[in-house]
Amino acid sequence: MSRLCPTVKDYESLGVIGEGATAIVYAAHSKITKQKYAIKCIRFQYSLNTKKTGNQVFQNEVDILKSLDHPNVAVLKDYFTGPQHHYLVIEFAEGGDLMDDLQKRGRYSEEHARPFVTEIMQAVRYCHDKNIVHRDLKPENILIDKFGSAKLVDFGLSKKIEKPDSLTTRCGTLLYMAPEISDNDSHGKAVDIWSSGIIIFILLSGYHPFQHERKDESRKLIKKGRLYLHPSRWDGVSLEAITLVHEMICVCPKHRITASESLKSPWLGYTEEFFAGKIKSLYPIDKFPGKVGAEMKMLRSIT
User: Fold this and answer.
1) Residues with active-site annotation
2) Which is nearest to 256 in space by CA: 172, 212, 191, 300?
3) Which parts of the chain are beta strand (E)?
């Protein structure tokens, strides 16, 4: 990472590729190295239900990104401050973001979704092992590189925690927001599991489970956590995938599986015995269903 006093003049803008409430992201070429990057521009005046200044948010994101080294987390190449903005120079992902790709495809097959989900959960597990909570996981914050691999980005709302469930700021994107954040309760790593479950749901079905034209109604749906699996979208989906979704989109954070446990689920290729035991403990039923078929109807009613 270069620290030879870089400035925005060292880069040639190729246009806006993303824009949020507090920042704009440009594609840009380095005039020195000729390489292509994504440059996130954070305004000095920052407000997103938080008392932090733009400088505090910028420094927090820099510190977190500098502490991360994982193939599925976008690399921070450089950072600097200009007259009106802070700048983060991040590796460029040629494939755009997951939402753009999903909109082109409509939805993913299980075979196509599984490697993306595996990479996402590996990155989440890595962050959680370092006690970092992302707090804004969504398809727009997952990029696809030239090799087709997932890259987590936008750690602006991320936080390193000292003890479990010690976070209190209401933040994130409503439709991916865990109930405990929406209710202004204390929260921790489990909020990333909820958001990841929503991402899997959308990838496999092509629709959002809690979307409503009114935000207050979306909040009510999130608080209930009831999933409706529309037959036309879910009838061909395996029981293993549906089970994983239910285990992640669980209203009670203490009952959500962890990132490590998700990677041991049958759908992501690990031991079925581990996951079956976990499901039995949460949903008291006489016999745990092992195959796709009539038993799938039972899972459709689980809230």
Assistant:
1) 136
2) 191
3) 11-19, 23-30, 36-43, 76-81, 85-91, 132-133, 142-144, 150-152, 159-160
Share above pLDDT 70 across residues of the chain, in percent, rounded to a whole number: 84
Residue 157 burial by CB count (10 A; 0-12/13-18/19+): exposed, middle or buried? buried
Where is 301: in which H helix or E strand?
Answer: none
Tokens (6 digits) for 118: 């595996």
Task: Show Cβ contacts of residue 215 under 8 Å, excluding neighbours closer than 6 positions.
Answer: 174
Q: Is the pLDDT of residue 297 over 60?
A: no
Average pLDDT over the chain, rounded to an integer: 86
* Separation CA 175–CA 181 (nearest Å): 11
Structural domains present in the chain: 8-91 (3.30.200.20), 98-300 (1.10.510.10)
Place of tokens 């009114």: 214
Nearest-angstrom CA–CA distance, 186 and 17? 34
Q: Say how far apart CA 110 and CA 233 lie, in whole Å.
A: 12
User: How much of the chain exceeds pLDDT 90, in percent?
Assistant: 71
pLDDT in tens, 158-176: 999 988 888 888 899 999 9
